[in-house]
Amino acid sequence: MNFMNSFDTVMTDCDGVIWFGLGEVPGVGAALNALEECGKRVVYVSNNSTRPTKDYKKKIEKLGAKFQEENLVHPMVAIIDYLNKTNFKGLIYSFATECANNLLREAGYEVLDGPVGKVEENHEKILKSVNDGAPVRLVIAESDLNFNLAKFWRADIYLKHPECDLIVGAYDRRIPVTQDFDIPGQAPIINCLVGSLPAGKRPIILGKPGVDLGEILMSRYNIKDHKRVLFVGDLICTDIKFASNVGFQSLLVLSGGITRERMLANKDTTAIPNYYADSISDFTTLIRSL
């Protein structure tokens, strides 16, 4: 009972927590509904901006849970919140998916992207194309499934301007496909861009595990006490690290990218979960027992 009374808001990752790969995590819908019936607010915090909102809605409702768009946050949603909050005015260069860039444009921002498609293998022509002198004042580095070296050069050139800042979205080091197989995430690519920033510049990180994302969430949901939030995730280096960075309570679930053995072998003392469970579905059993 003390545990359930220790938080008002449940923020949960999606991939690996309420579904994993192409399958569902059994009993998730009932658990999410039980949490809301107990008066807890459930917020979905994903690092995946490549999935349209309608797809999140469809997947969550298929689980039998309720979906409200205002309770979904992924990096591009957080980025738009930040731009609105800071009253940003200016031209943006974004390497991200078409879906994510369209969200920026729909929010009223002027966005450059590309080059797209096959790039001619000629250094002089590429440099002439990307060194266009456009008055870009913000570069957004997000998950881009069509990333190429020309986009990296273009972003780097814009960021040399003293008034051009960098916002980073999804910042996963590895992305699990199964518990035994993972692939590189966006972080290794973005780290190259961060490493080339002029002295004195730092990126604003609005994806997990960035502290800046935590500030957006606290403001968006009018949360006064970090400790009244329970963050549920399946990855130590992304979800649990984020909760630790921000000051949220954390619950690691073993339904996604981490096994119990790997959890116990974790050596990162800055990313130790407060609790762990087999699945977020265990909330149903816990609530019924109260």
From TrEMBL:
The keyword Acetylation does not apply. The keyword Acetylation does not apply. Pfam families: Hydrolase_6, Hydrolase_like. Gene3D superfamilies: HAD superfamily/HAD-like. Its cofactor is Mg(2+). It comes from the Eukaryota. Substrate binds at residues 46-48, 208. This is Pyridoxal phosphate phosphatase. It comes from Lutzomyia longipalpis.
